[in-house]
Amino acid sequence: VTERLVVIGGDAGGLTAATQARRRRPDLEIVALEKGRWISYSACGIPYVVGGTVDELDDLVVLSPDALHAKYDVDVRTRHEATSLDLDRREVEVRDHAAGRTYKLPFDILQIGTGATPMRPELPGINDEHIHGVANLEDAAHLLDHVGGNAPPGGGRAVVVGGGYIGLEMAEAFLHRGWTRVTVVEQAPEVMGTLDPDMGALVSQAMRDEGIDVRCGTKVTGFEPGVVHTDAGPIEHDLVVLGLGVVPNTALAREAGLETGARHAIKVDRRQRTSADGVWAAGDCCLSFHRVSETWVHIALGTVANKQGRVAGINIGGGYATFPGVVGTAVTKLCSLEVARTGLNEREAKEAGFEHEAVTIESTTRAGYYPGAGKITVKLLAERRSGRLLGGQLVGFEGAAKRIDVLATALTARMTVEEMTALDLSYAPPFSPVWDPVLVAARKAAERLA
Ligand SMILES: Cc1cc2nc3c(=O)[nH]c(=O)nc-3n(C[C@H](O)[C@H](O)[C@H](O)COP(=O)(O)OP(=O)(O)OC[C@H]3O[C@@H](n4cnc5c(N)ncnc54)[C@H](O)[C@@H]3O)c2cc1C
Q: 149 pLDDT exceeds 70?
């Protein structure tokens, strides 16, 4: 009898598992359900379409349903939404939005990759049609319908609520598109809450220097058509984007009785198995093990979703793979600045029970005399007793960001800052000073600990 794998969610967490399973199990019947019109897309590219750097949403699509079917023999059903799950009967209730009918789809194996949705706090007026969350191409299409080809008459006033990386990337996108008044409202003392406030302050300032009105320490209290109300007064707008972070899409899983953890994300083991037999999960809907804090956390990133999906798919296909976890690495480009972080920030280090030292250095992205050399600030955290690297943050100009990968690798290898000082990193004037900025920071941290 042919076994059927049903996949819920047509992006990284769902389809990476489907394609990996197919490589090992040519015999499986695979049905993928996606409630939207698009599958296999890069949501990460949305700000660049809104800003006009990338031409259109279709450019963000990796595989069409037809291409996925032809290449991997997956029965892709777009505009088909899983509306409930019965784990005892092993069936999914599906709403076919195009045909306007509901049907039951039995499964032997289930892969959940339902992703996450932008957080919408319960504030008056939050459901106004001018308040946009941006999580997938459907959201982006809806936003682009409102934004139109050019800025509205009078220049266009956009308000971004929340200063996380998605909110800030969207703020920059509006600036690129020619909107003249772009405001970011952030409750915390600085934007980019995944950084420490001293590093976040560099980002707030850089955004202001580019002409974005960044209002930190300001709380949104409600919305009315055309107005965002804050505790520091009203802000008029033509459009609002929410950048308050995301919540995992796990209502289906929870109602079916699957175990969840932090932020109601689905609990998985290191092979991506959920608490129910034959049910797997990957991506923004589930938890990840943090290799530094050694806790289960919810981190919604495409890098993680693809890796977890691959592991789930190999296991579903009868192979053996594990996902050892994340170290919390993320990177973004905001106006002329590159911003990156990995491991734990100071708050997270304290919460995880580490006693740490923090050092910050300033250097340049290339040899100081070489054209294009720009400033880079590096902050490192190390455990006081052992000297082990706990985390790193970078803010700098072109060439800064990918240095975070050295720090992520050092974290994975559980290196001490002293060991890092001897890393044989490359050098030539167009790429770095003779002491790369991460080595300068490691030296300062080692000296501090000594
Ligand atoms: C603007 C933006 C920028 C980003 N930038 C980066 C970046 O630079 N780097 C990075 O690593 N990550 C980035 N991310 C995050 C990254 O896009 C996500 O982590 C990744 O897409 C998660 O993949 P996923 O498959 O778990 O979830 P999703 O991509 O959200 O896919 C889940 C899919 O499931 C579908 N679905 C949900 N419920 C159902 C249901 N009941 N029935 C059928 N279908 C359903 C949804 O419609 C959706 O298509 C960004 C995200 C956004 C929004």
A: no
- 2 CA from centroid of ligand 1 (Å): 30
CA distances to 192, 223, 340 from 186, rounded to whole Å, are 9, 15, 19
Helix (H), strand (E) at residue 383? strand 375-383
| Pair 313, 20: CB distance under 8 Å | yes
For ligand 1, what atom is nearest to the CA of residue 39?
49
CA angle 2, 6, 7 (to 5 degrees): 145
- Cβ-based burial of 233 (10 A; exposed 0-12, middle 13-18, buried ≥19): exposed
204-240 pLDDT, tens digit each: 999 999 999 999 999 999 999 999 999 999 999 999 9
User: How far away, in angstroms, is 236 Cα from ligand 1 center?
Assistant: 30
How far is the C-alpha of 374 from the C-alpha of 398, rounded, in Å?
A: 7
pTM for the structure as a whole? 0.96
pLDDT digits (tens, 9 = 90+) for 388-408: 999 999 999 999 999 999 999
Measured in angstroms, how far is the CA atom of residue 209 from the centroid of ligand 1?
31
> Using an 8 Å Cβ cutoff, are 333 and 402 in contact?
no
Ligand 1 first shell, C-beta below 6 A: 8-14, 33-36, 43-44, 46-47, 81-82, 113-116, 134-136, 166, 249, 252, 283-285, 300-303, 305
Distance from C-alpha of 242 to C-alpha of 273, rounded to nearest angstrom: 32
Among this protein's residues, is 216 annotated catalytic?
no
Q: DSSP assignment of 176-204, as one string?
A: HTT-SEEEEE-SSSSS-TTS-HHHHHHHH
- Cα distance between residue 189 and residue 61, in whole Å: 37
Pocket residue to mutate for ligand 1, from 15, 31, 34, most atoms within 8 A of Cβ? 34
Atom of ligand 1 nearest to the CA of 9: 34
pLDDT tier at 36, thresholds 50, 70, 90: very high
pLDDT digits (tens, 9 = 90+) for 351-390: 999 999 999 999 999 999 999 999 999 999 999 999 999 9
Ligand 1 centroid distance, CA of 283 (Å)? 8
